[in-house]
Amino acid sequence: MKLGRLNHVGVAAPSMQDAIAYYRDVMGARVITDPFDMPEQGVKVAFVNTPGEAGTAGTQIELIEPLGETSPIAGFIAKNPAGGQHHVCYEVEDIEAARDWFTAQGKRILGPTRIGAHGTPIFFLHPKDMLGQLTEIMETPRGDH
């Protein structure tokens, strides 16, 4: 199993509009998706790209806002009222092979494989097994960046 590139950093925010304004106006990021609800995951999501070198896209940031008190990130916002880094996401070519590989290493997978905000299969790894970072693994077929 080969781990691919860092796809994005997930940033939880109490206000999607405030987060978009911050990344656009302070960080110079370009908003690449309008906010959209993912009720099955209990979040509102938008993607921004930080400025890159010589016309490159830079780094993608996934902004996530809880959709109500039962959202999986509501507790994170309660502990971090200003928001903050929530997770990192790495690409793999085969999500099932990656799941088997991490399981064989004794890493705890949080929940089933499901479809993420990019429309591709994802799963999450427990932060205690990943140097304290909630880690998302996302299937991205070769050449699809």
Largest sheet: 9 strands, mixed
CATH-level-4 superfamily name: 2,3-Dihydroxybiphenyl 1,2-Dioxygenase, domain 1
- Tell me, briefly, the overall form: globular
Termini separation (Å)?
18 Å
Strand content: 35-45%
Question: Could you report the average pLDDT, rounded to the nearest whole number?
Answer: 93
| Helix content estimate | 10-25%
By helix and strand content, what is the structural category? alpha+beta
Model description:
The protein is α+β, with helices and mostly antiparallel strands. The protein has a single domain (6-139), classed as 2,3-Dihydroxybiphenyl 1,2-Dioxygenase, domain 1. It has helices at residues 16-25, 74-79, 95-104, and strands at residues 6-12, 30-31, 36-38, 43-49, 60-66, 84-92, 109-115, 121-125, 135-139. Strand 3 (36-38) and strand 4 form a beta hairpin. The model has no long low-confidence stretch (mean pLDDT 93).
Briefly summarize what is shown:
This protein is an alpha+beta fold. The protein is built from 3 helices and 9 strands, in the order βαββββαβαβββ.
